[in-house]
Design a protein that fits this description.
Rossmann fold, three-stranded mixed sheet, N-(1-d-carboxylethyl)-l-norvaline Dehydrogenase, domain 2, single chain, six-stranded parallel sheet
């Protein structure tokens, strides 16, 4: 059975570019489009075809992948792509969106003639570049077979949450996952700030928790970005994580929940964004404690 696909990747930022590279490595024919075309140049050098518009990118594609900023951007780009879509093309929608955005995107897919697979991913720059993302997906069995080679190229594992992509089951799980990612990253910054204020070497803390139940590779990774001043290029940028934090809070409030930690994390991210750090890694939330300016 032929497992090679012609894939259009719409959005080649941190995650989209990494996904496109892994699709190329897996032998797929890849077309790429980005609003800022300069971001597609390295992918052209790697063998991707660069399109001048979303419609050009999707023309003749068997699978379309969207990895954009938010639901509004996805809606705009898919509408631009619509003239090039062949009815029945599979659409792997990997942008993190709100729970209520999913139904609207499913309706758009029906109008445009795309077979939607809801497929947000868990992971940052490094796992994306290694093809080790965790894909959280929802879609009917018939479409799953068509997109499987694409999901296998971008991720280490796919977790299917349901058959109806309009129900938002994948989006809900992604928001729960990101609530933990944001909380853990924020905790890393607060630990470093407190250690600094108290005259404690951060390594003493890490030595103490080494190998125990409190140890966490993600915590060490985010702390390392701050300690080594490696906040750029971002693995998960402040502005994107702030957008996701707000989606999480919207979902929580709708269900009558008060998430004090998530509220605080969003406030800290907003504070460092206002310092001019919106494109730095989310670990820059450390500076919300130190009150340093950019």
């Amino acid at each position: 059975m032929n497992t090679q696909r012609t894939v259009a990747v719409l959005g080649t930022g941190i995650m989209g570019a990494a996904m496109a590279r892994n699709l190329l490595r897996a032998g797929h024919e890849v077309r790429v489009w980005n609003r800022d075309q300069a971001k597609t140049a390295p992918l052209a050098d790697a063998g991707a075809q660069v399109a001048s518009s979303p419609a050009e990118a999707v023309a003749g594609a068997e699978v379309v992948v969207t990895m954009l900023y938010d639901a509004a951007a996805v809606t705009e780009v898919i509408r631009q792509a619509a003239p090039g879509v062949s009815p029945g093309t599979a659409w792997v929608q990997s942008t993190t969106v709100g729970v209520h955005d999913v139904a609207a995107l499913a309706a758009l897919a029906e109008v445009v003639g795309l077979d939607l697979v809801e497929a947000p991913v868990s992971g940052t720059r490094e796992p994306a570049e290694a093809g080790q993302l965790l894909v959280i997906a929802a879609g009917p069995e018939a479409v799953r077979e068509r997109v499987a080679p694409v999901l296998d190229a971008i991720g280490a594992r796919t977790v299917w949450t349901g058959e109806d992509p309009s129900a938002g089951s994948a989006a809900r799980l992604k928001l729960v996952v990101n609530s933990w990612v944001i909380a853990a990253s924020n905790a890393a910054g607060e630990i470093l700030a407190l250690a600094e204020a108290l005259g404690v070497e951060p390594q003493q803390f890490f030595n103490l928790i080494d190998g125990g139940g409190l140890d966490l590779p993600f915590l060490r990774a985010k702390a390392g970005l701050v300690l080594e001043d490696r906040l750029e290029p971002a693995s998960f940028a402040v502005d994107t994580s702030l957008k996701d934090a707000r989606l999480i809070l919207d979902a929580a409030r709708e269900h009558g929940l008060r998430l004090d930690g998530a509220e605080a994390s969003a406030a800290r991210l907003a504070r460092v964004a206002s310092q001019g750090r919106s494109k730095q890694d989310m670990a820059a939330a450390y500076y919300a404690s130190t009150q340093q300016d950019a």
